[in-house]
């Protein structure tokens, strides 16, 4: 199988007025690879994620996606329709707040089935069957298929969000603090699930987080951001065990 | 034997006959005239003109009489009449700086060049019902007339660069909500038009909500003016402007707080209201909501209903609103029949399902 | 008429055919032209909602101003107009609208569906199949079928443009999950010409099949919401459903108490204090014609 990067980012910068939010980011992401982006609040992580996932056109630089046919597609040269289609099929986004990534007034089954219906599935039984499969895969009680997400715990809502995104077999998933609003014990189980799913479906992922445990568990590679700049990058274990940059050292040492 | 109902036409005629009788009221009581309404209930005619989008106090009075005092019904009459009127062009923008002032106040400075002119205001009356109805005394005349040139308070702030300059339409384009479909997002000129003819009660409530924390913008009443302005029109054949006549308007300019950003130094911002006739409540509410709807443009987050353009503009027209609310009185029995059938079916299905369960349990 | 004569006739102000000094059918010619342009665009893009500068009319918004503006723009002195509400010619609002056109246009009116060239309707499609050359004008309260899922116009416009209709099917899925059936009995959403999802107006779903490939022209006017849309003759109109939960129409165990019809939409009447019920055809003209002696003209 010829390997193309699934994401190729060059010279990516973004300014809000005169304030620099993201400066000069370059990297490549390969299929099946997980990249972690860490740094404290205000470092530019979320802005970077929005630029990468087609939601915010950067003031400078290029984001290219390696599609299923092997072409590198300039994400911001696509029409809005094209980007929205990517977000429904090849890509997934897991938000920190489940309410941002789910329809809270729609049942679990409806939430999972929506992408299938959006791409043309018209068989109720099939759709429901897929929803059941995915509830199992994210280790949720299939008896809750008709329940509203408002009746679920935070951890279950996140699992539902994951299922909703993965049902159309995306190749690339963007995650913004996926365990951010959860209890420590719930976090651990969710991270474990994510690790298995990512490996099992050979997903590429970009995970933004301030929590080093998350990247330790999920990410192959790491980028450390400070004030909009990438100050250090490399293999996760290397960076965390032997940080070179002063800021990285600070981050690592302040983890309990 | 059931006989199908007929006679809708006759029923309508009879209803109209009764309406005419009710409108006249007790024949031994003198009939009210449009002149009395226009002369002695001028706030009512002013509101009808403002929201009817038609300046004609006599017509407004006639509409109020025909509507038996229901102002929204009167506004509806004026709007429907307006649709039929030929239009021969646009006037020049009225110059409120050259207003023949009856009233002019500012809350931002204790004293202003030209002075605070109270005019015929309710503001300082004690709201005690007057049962005696004393014969009105002629008001005292002032010793001096008002100055011809009353500078605008906001222009004084503008001279120091303390307030943003007044808005300008991009490319000089001006929309017309009575001719074009309202699209979102709407430009400010279109938004102001909608507000000018929008329901006073709705805008009052929205303006009030901004003062109670739903999207507050720290308003001060920079200047409120009531008086007559001249309407000028330039016929293409003449090439110069002629005066068509004078109309009374109320103008409200609010001064609102704004923190500077990386690109803009700190400046006050504006909210603007302008209505036909004497309508301070409406002009002030309009200015509050105008400023609230500029939230996004000024780089702030939209969090409150008054800031939500689509919400405000879709619901501020009371003729549309009353039409749709009251349309519920129209027959809906076909759709209701469909729903009845559906609900009966669902209940039957639920019952047979639970009977089946009971049977199973019993076995 | 020569093209020049036609153009001159179109440009000249029409003679008021009535007492009030208003233009023929109330609207001025410029407004009619504007609406006809919107109608042409609507016919060219079946099911697409065309914005138009809806005028203030002498009837209230929500009471048929959209339908009235469409009818006023297409009607001519040679037309024959039928107006129905809930399927009947004699309901008060139908009477009021018919009077409006008699007063402002002086056109002949009829209750017989077959004799009408323009039929303005609220909430029903006539039982008698329409013919080529007839125009059905629907009164529409809420033109946007996605409105209940998404209140913002800016978002629904995008959804139509990008054919993002997933949310619509989600709502049907939810109905089946919750009730076992799709719980929409009127204003049932349809897909027009395989492209746009459209609100057929609050007709009962019973009437949806009549819209499919009709030889008549179907026009839809929403005055308050300022939208016009159309289904040209012979256009496929398909009610949304799932393959394993196909679209079905209402049916009654009873037949019409007056004419015995078993294939029409029936109104339920409560006829006494004990709650005794009778069922009668909603389409009053259809019912009357069935009761006419065979071969006779029958009274209108």
Write a structural description:
Chain A has 256 residues and is an alpha/beta fold. Chain A folds into 2 domains: 1-90 and 172-256, Rossmann fold; 101-169, no CATH class. Chain A contains 10 helices and 10 strands. Chain A has helices at 45-52, 80-88, 98-101, 108-118, 124-137, 154-166, 184-200, 212-218, 236-241, 246-253, and strands at residues 7-16, 19-29, 34-38, 60-66, 72-74, 91-94, 172-176, 204-209, 221-226, 229-235. In chain A, helix 4 (108-118) crosses helix 5 and helix 4 runs parallel beside helix 6. Chain A is globular and about 55 Å long. Chain B is an alpha+beta fold and 363 residues long. Chain B folds into 2 domains: 9-82, no CATH class; 96-119 and 147-322, no CATH class. Chain B is 40% helix and 12% strand. Chain C has 8 helices and 11 strands. Chain C is globular. In chain C, helix 2 (29-44) packs across helix 3. Mean pLDDT of chain C is 89; it is low at 1-19 and 296-300. The two termini of chain C are 36 Å apart. Helix content of chain C is 28%, strand content 16%. Chains in contact: A-B, A-C, B-C. The interface between B and C is large, with 49 and 64 residues.
Which SSEs are present, and which pair or pack?
The complex is a heterotrimer of chains A (256), B (363) and C (300).
Chain A: E1 7-16, E2 19-29, E3 34-38, H1 45-52, E4 60-66, E5 72-74, H2 80-88, E6 91-94, H3 98-101, H4 108-118, H5 124-137, H6 154-166, E7 172-176, H7 184-200, E8 204-209, H8 212-218, E9 221-226, E10 229-235, H9 236-241, H10 246-253
Helix pairs in contact in A: 4-5, 4-6, 5-6
Chain B: H1 8-24, H2 34-40, H3 42-52, H4 57-66, H5 71-84, E1 100-105, H6 153-159, H7 188-196, H8 200-211, E2 220-233, E3 242-256, E4 269-276, H9 280-293, H10 309-315, H11 318-326, H12 333-362
Antiparallel strand pairs in B: 1-2, 2-3, 3-4
Chain C: H1 3-11, H2 29-44, E1 50-51, H3 65-74, E2 81-85, H4 92-105, E3 118-122, E4 135-139, H5 153-161, H6 166-179, E5 190-192, E6 196-198, H7 208-211, E7 217-222, E8 227-231, E9 237-239, E10 266-270, E11 277-281, H8 284-291
Parallel strand pairs in C: 2-3, 3-4, 4-7
Antiparallel strand pairs in C: 1-8, 5-6, 5-9, 7-8, 10-11
Helix pairs in contact in C: 2-3
